[in-house]
Write a structure and sequence with these properties.
The protein has about 270 residues and is of the alpha/beta class. It contains ten helices and seven strands. The chain has a single domain, classed as Vaccinia Virus protein VP39 (Rossmann fold, 3-Layer(aba) Sandwich).
Amino acid sequence: MSQGEFLTAVAEEYASLDPLKVRIAAHQELSEFPDDVEAAVLDGAECSPEHDVVDVGCGTAGFLRARSVAGHRGRLVGIDTAPSAVEAARAVPGTEGLLGSATELPLPGGAFDLLYARHMLYHVDDPAKALAEFRRVLRPGGTAVTVVNHAEVVPHATGMVREEIARQGLDPGMRTVNGIHSDNLPPLLEAAFGNVRTTRYDNSLIFSEPGRLVEFSVALLSVCGLPPEAPERPAVVSALHDRIHAWFDGNRGPWRDPKGYTVSVSVRTDS
């Protein structure tokens, strides 16, 4: 896939934030063990109310909203390539929303104390360039907190979705994922910052009834190469519905799908 095709695929995936919200809700509500990504991110580095903070790939702006509600007094900025995400950030009191790419941040150098990049680096066409940008916009002593998934996340649901897309004669490629994951990101951070500290979180999603798994699987379609306007989409959704209900009819116990992520912390140490 060319750079242009990759960027187009990412734009299509996040034209609407609804599938992302479905996936977030599943991870919040259906994890085998308590899974508070926001708490894990905040554990990575102290976020003072006075810090100037930028959230790259701000998505639904939920993280920025939580900081605003908590009484954050420093600058809060959300950046995303998706206009829907930028609008979500601008709807948060006291928060700036900027349209821009992680590889060309629309920010001056040395302007922030903290930079968060949560679950977004695998959607970037040039991750090394993005990390260089992260370092550039941080002040000396500033901290970048990055979160990426493990290489294999919910492989059973993802595999099922890809199989049903392939049955329609389509390519079930992971169009919006560049291959960055928990194991290969730390060396890139070490190269960009000269330091990295990583904490690993392992878990599973547990689906106890078919409805939530159908909803979650449909929310994976665009990630797996089937955009909302694809004429084959209704057939794939119907097949997923039937397949999932048949699985629950024929198996004991819940559907368990492994997942996990790492939180990596790097500090700009030069003066």
